Amino acid sequence: MNSFTIRAARPHADETTALLDWSVGHLDELERWAIRRQVPVPGPILAGIRRRYAEDGGRAPESVPPVWDREPDSVPAGQVPEAALLAALERDLLLYAASLAEGRIDDLTVTTVPGVPAAFYAPQSRRLFLPDWLAEAVSGRLFAPTALFPEPPSATVSWLFFQSLVLTPPSLPSGPAAHVLGIRESD
Predict the structure, then answer these.
(1) Using an 8 Å Cβ cutoff, are 117 and 131 in contact?
(2) I want to staple 10 with a disulfide (CB 3.0 to 4.6 A). Which of 73, 143, 151, 176 is the partner?
(3) 166 contacts: CB under 8 Å, gap ≥ 6
(4) Would you state the pLDDT for residue 48?
(5) At a CB cut-off of 8 Å and minimum separation 6, what does 74 contact?
(6) Gap between the Cα atoms of 152 and 169, Å rounded
(7) What whole-number distance in Å separates Cα of residue 81 and Cα of residue 122?
(8) What are phi and psi of 160, to 5 degrees?
């Protein structure tokens, strides 16, 4: 049987800046990501990235260090505010364990980062960076309970991983993790 493990980590102080720098160089992909997933990126975050994009002439800063490749500052998954979300993500990704195993992914470290515009995946370190505003907004239900459906079905949160933007060098295009890594989203 395949297995899959989720770990939690605190963000390092410079990771928010590095993720925002990366976003400036990939603004088009970032905007397509939000539109296709109907995810309302908070206006101040997107405005800040667009302002820096205009100031930098559409280029990522030359010195975007790959800070996401270093060892994460791990914490027990049950001790983070988004513990329920991480448990749901682990449960949902376990359903795709065979596909993930083909991509040599059997664990994932999730870091909730304040002020970033999208979900990002760093394949070298198997880290998923979730924006704090998105982690708080993800619902575990498809719709609210009604008289007809007092217990509505659960929604999957696996898209947070499969549709996260892969952190790539400035010279390479990015895209959703499932596409860039060649992982099937169904088993």
Answers:
(1) yes
(2) 73
(3) 120, 121, 122, 123, 174, 175, 176, 177, 180, 181
(4) 92
(5) 7, 8, 9, 109
(6) 42
(7) 22
(8) -60, -35
Question: Residue type for 143, please?
Answer: F
The alpha carbon of residue 23 and the mean position of all alpha carbons in its chain are separated, in whole angstroms, by 13
Alpha-carbon span 121 to 113, nearest angstrom: 12
Q: How far apart are CA 6 and CA 93, in angstroms?
A: 9
In this structure, what token pair is assigned to residue 51? 């302002």
Decide the pairing of beta strands 73-75 and 107-113: unpaired
Instruction: Output the pLDDT for position 1.
Output: 45
Q: Which pLDDT belongs to residue 112?
A: 93
pTM of the model: 0.86
> Tokens for 82?
């988004």
Is there a contact between 154 and 140 (Cβ–Cβ < 8 Å)? yes
Instruction: Tell me the torsion sign for CA atoms 73, 79, 85, 88.
Output: positive
Q: Say which amino acid occupies 20.
A: L
**Mean pLDDT for the chain overall:** 83
Q: Which residues of the chain have pLDDT under 70?
A: 1-2, 58-66, 139-144, 152-154, 170-171, 184-187
Residue type (1 letter), 115: G
Token pair 């596409």 is at which residue?
179
> For 41-55, what is each residue's pLDDT tens digit?
999 999 999 998 888
- Helix/strand/coil for 131: strand
